[in-house]
Description:
It is a single chain. By secondary structure, the chain is of the alpha+beta class. Helix content is 16%, strand content 42%. It contains 3 helices and 10 strands.
Amino acid sequence: MLSPVYLLLLLPLVAAQSYHWGPCPDPMIQPGFKIQPYLGKWYEIEKLPASFERGKCIEANYDMRADGTIRVLNKQYYKDKWRVVEGSATIADPQRSGRIGVSFSYFTPYSPYWVLSTDYSSVAVVYSCTDVLHLFHVDFAWILGRSRFLPYATVQHAKEILVREGIDVFRMTNTIQTGCRD
């Protein structure tokens, strides 16, 4: 039996997230995904709410380490200063290379980072889902661009990909990418 105290402790964690009853969907990932052309800088265009992303000018930079893991460097401008966090990513199954695991601490397990679609040169659609006690799931979704701004039609097409895979995009918000000082 789930303790009411435990549920109360979980509420603040999911309040700034997008959550739904039931298990995580199992979306299709990009067939034949290749990590090498995906590496480099991506700018966050839109996202589902994420408590760890409250700033503007959000970007992620991916590069390969000598040991075969992927260095993840996330950056955002929040409360008048740049905030940078470094993590690590791995591809556990080369047959499903679009399903990447990302962790930002030695003490936390790898979280899903699934590339649903990318052309590698302009846009990527990424999804993550965490199942909570088989009662509900917490969604994360990002539309990323190689530039700070994407055409409206490109963003709409990215949202259509998410919707087609059963992912609710109603709470997606634009990420402010103006006034960014690199």
